[in-house]
Every structure is written in C-alpha cells, then in structure tokens.
Amino acid sequence: GQQLNQSPQSMFIQEGEDVSMNCTSSSIFNTWLWYKQDPGEGPVLLIALYKAGELTSNGRLTAQFGITRKDSFLNISASIPSDVGIYFCAGQLGAQKLVFGQGTRLTINP
Amino acid sequence: DTEVTQTPKHLVMGMTNKKSLKCEQHMGHRAMYWYKQKAKKPPELMFVYSYEKLSINESVPSRFSPECPNSSLLNLHLHALQPEDSALYLCASSQAPGIPYGYTFGSGTRLTVV
To answer: How many cross-chain Cβ pairs, A to B, lie less than 8 Å apart?
Structure first.
C-alpha cells in the first residue's frame, strides 16, 4: 500500500532553534496535511496544502506542497516548549482516505 | 461548535464484554471516520461513513461494528475484543467525502482490553 516516509523520526533541540521535517512518497497526493499530537489527545490540524508548489504559513509554522506532489516539508521557527509533541504528515489518497507518515517526535531542551 | 466529541475518554473492558464508543459533531460534516492508533504509531483508518452510509471498511474484524444513527453521531460497538485491540480509538469528521477541509479529530478513547 501507499506509504509516506517521514523524517526525522525524532529531534532533540534547544529552545529557540528552528525545526525542519519532511515527508516523501512514491505516490502523488492531491492534498497534504500536517498535524500535531499531544500525549493522550487526538491530532490537531496545523496546516493544509491543496496545490502543488503552495507555501503556507501559520504563525511560526511554514509548510510547502512539493511541486512533484510527492513531498512536503514543515518548518517551525524559534521553537518554544509548547511545540513539544509528535508531528504527522498526511496525504489524501483517493476520495476519502488519509495516509499518515510515521511521525516526528520533537523534544525541546529548555 | 468546531469540535468532535468522543466518549468515554477511557475504557477498560474484558474480552467477553460488549461496549460502545461514541462520537458526536455538530459542524454539519457529512463524512465521519474511525481510526485506530497504537502507541508510537500513526493513526490507521478503520471505517468511513459518507452521508450516513458505510463507504469504506478497511478489512476490520467483525468484533468491531460501526453505526451511524444520524449525520451527527457515530458509534463503534465492541464485542469479544482481544488484548491486542487495546489502543487509542479516534473519531474524525470532514465537510464531505473527498474534501479534507476541516478534517477534525476528536481526543480519542483510550481502550484497554483485559
């Protein structure tokens, strides 16, 4: 089945540093979504991308939909403690399914 | 109201029990989803309901039985589960099938099968 390769699997950074993570796929997606999940909670949508090449920002977060429609990246600038969590990319497959990456676990040292 | 509400938040059940998970949204979304998430893994799709009809079943064992009584409610009936079914069960909804706008997850039900 379709898979999203998300990297890195984990990151340990200092507060204030910038963060970058990405997802790649062998399949073309029409939509890319980026979610953050805190322990014991459901994923919360951060950014949605609907067009190839699209670059979208949400506060300190910036994400881009790759021009080939097979990849996407998420950047977080000037990280703060509340950015800790697991970040998932997701691609829309067909009419009704999302396929998720394996997640990037972000840890921030104060 | 921009939330998907799931109850209960935690559930412990024996392998012979019958229980139900509930999901509710009042955003007018016409597509609702059940996902299963094991620890340190991404969510995996189980079922999709489109306009209150089951449209996708990802080969889920029959001990999981979904139900969509109306456009706002989604249930997951559980019977004769196994310990390996212990996981976080997530409900989600979106505006319409195939349109990911507003694809919103609930907080989940943490299920433990003993």
So the answer is: 55
- The whole-number pLDDT of residue B97 equals 73
Q: Which residues of B touch A41 (CB under 8 A)?
A: 107-108
Q: At residue A1, does pLDDT exceed 60?
A: no
pLDDT in tens, B26-42: 999 999 999 999 998 99
Helix (H, G, I), strand (E, B) or coil at B83: helix
Spatial distance between the Cα atoms of A68 and A43, rounded to a whole number of angstroms:
26
Contacts 24+ apart (CB under 8 A), B84-88: B84/B113, B85/B111, B85/B113, B86/B111, B86/B112, B86/B113, B87/B36, B87/B37, B87/B38, B87/B39, B87/B111, B88/A40, B88/B36, B88/B37, B88/B38
Which tokens hold the place of B3? 């939330």
Q: Are B46 and B35 in contact (CB under 8 A)?
A: yes
Please list, in sequence order, all residues whose beta carbon lies within 8 angstroms of the beta carbon of residue A21, skipping any fewer than 6 positions away.
Answer: A6, A7, A8, A11, A73, A74, A87, A89, A104
Other beta carbons within 10 angstroms of residue A86's beta carbon come to: 18
Amino acid at A78: A
Cβ <8 Å between A43 and B4:
no
Cβ within 8 Å, pair B97-A96:
yes
